[in-house]
Each structure stands twice: as structure tokens, then as C-alpha cells.
Amino acid sequence: MGRHMARNLHEAGLLATTWNRTAAVAGEFARETGIPAAASPAALAAGVDAIVICVSADADVLAVVLAIAPAVRPGTLVIDCSTVSAGTAREAAALLAPRGAAFLDCPVSGGVEGARDATLAVMCGGDAAAFERARPLLATMGRTITHFGASGAGQAAKATNQIMCAGIIRAVAEAMAFARAQQLPLEALVETLGKGAGSSWYFVNRAPNMIRGSFPAGFRVRLHAKDLGICKAMAAESGVELPVVESMLAEYAQLIEQGYGDEDISADYRLKAALFKHPA
User: Fold this and answer.
1) Catalytic residue positions, numbered
2) What is the largest CA-CA distance in the chain?
3) Could you tell me whether strands 142-149 and 120-125 are parallel, antiparallel, or unpaired per DSSP bridges?
4) Tell me, what CATH number does 86's domain have?
5) Which residues contact 163 (CB under 8 A, 6 or more apart)?
6) Averaged over 167-187, what is the pLDDT?
7) Fewer Cβ atoms within 10 A, N terminus or C terminus of the chain?
8) pLDDT at 280 over 70
9) Is the pTM of this model over 0.70?
10) Range of the domain at 180
11) Is the Cβ–Cβ distance between 51 and 45 less than 8 Å?
12) Which of 41, 36, 43 is nearest to 53 (CA)?
């Protein structure tokens, strides 16, 4: 997703430099676009007015923030599009505040397709004035851009989204396994139900994976499991267990154990189809 987001910033004339933890990735992007790769996060931070981060996990975000903090200039916008905990977002904001930099937690939703087509939904937390300054940058990457409140609010909104995704993909997987067992014409089913009341983005865009039995990574199982772990921890702060989160974490654990952790989350269909292949 980060590569697509960087490309959209470049096409808007807003990208000055990039950095990636895998140097070969940054080098390939530089050859493709002509945008130079910085030697380090600090080198990148020293020469720009805004930084967009997109990494995998809480520790990664904090590592990048700590790396840029000594070099970041006062007034710099630091926009984090990763999915991490609200607590991590607040910690990152606190680390950058003494440098006069504004940190915005801006996780995104919409999958690889949304990143490619610049149609992501962007959920933002942080200072309202900084959000308004960041809006033109965010608009090159997403179509729906919403400020939800103080630092951490964007991540709380994304956690809400991830709970919904868990329930929806599980329902789609069960429905498609049921439909196959009923010997329905599956392509026609998706075409028809995709226009019905039970439709969703996941049904329209991921049910075809289930028909083909192929699950190329749009949103990897292990990453959604990581996100649901964040949701679980946030719910636990209120003394609550969420049944959808708990059940989906258990199913993802099975998929990871079976070697499918790097497939798209539509691979949950594997477990549902097995229910019909091996009835109790």
C-alpha cells in the first residue's frame, strides 16, 4: 500500500524523497520515478516539511519516529498511515512535540485497490489545525478524509473498522462456502447479491477469490490478526471481550498455523469450505 500511496504523492508533485527499511525497495522506486531515496530517516526528515509513514506495527512506528526526531524541523507534519494502537499514536505525538513537529495518526482503509486508486478512507487524530494543513496531502491518497479528535482518535476509528472487517469477511466466507455446497452458480451469485442488501466491499471484491480458491495478498491474515490483537487490548481496557474479535483471532491462528498467514484475509474461506467437505 505504501508504494501506491507514494506514487500518488509523486504524481501530485508533492514527493521529494523516500526511505524504506529495505534499501532495494527504495532503490527500485527511485529508478521508476526519479525520486531519490534518502540514506536514513534522519536525512529524509532534515529536508522536508511533511513526512508520511506507512509501516506494519507499533514498534515500527516508534522506531521511525525516534529516528526522525533529532532531525525533524519545527512545524513539520508527521502523518502516520500505519495501523497501530491509540496509545502508540499518543506516545509518538509526545515524542515529537518537543521538536515542534505535529504528529497525526491517519490510518487508512480500502485495501491495495484503494491505495492504488487514491480512494482510501482516512481516519485522523491529532491537532485540528495540523489536520487542516495535512488535508491536501491526504487528498492525494484518499477520497474520504475525516478528523475524529485528539491523538489516538484516528487509530480508535481504524480499530472500529477492523472489527467490522472481521465480521464481514467471516460472514462472506461462510456464505460462499454454503453457496458452493448448494451447487449454486457462484459468479452469477456474486453478480446478483452484490447488488442486494447483504452486499459489502468485501463481498464484491473478495468473494471472487473464494470462487477461484486463490487468495493473493490484499490484506494479509497475519496483519489483520495483529490489528485484532490491538482491538482486543483496547476492549480489555474497558473490561470487555468482543466475540467477533475473539472468534476471528482463533480462526486466523488456525490459518497461520496451516501456513496461510501471508494470504489475503479472504482465505478464511478455507476454514469454512472445510466444514462442508468434512461434516461432523
Assistant:
1) 158
2) 63
3) parallel
4) 3.40.50.720
5) 228, 231, 242, 244, 245
6) 97
7) C
8) no
9) yes
10) 157-277
11) yes
12) 41
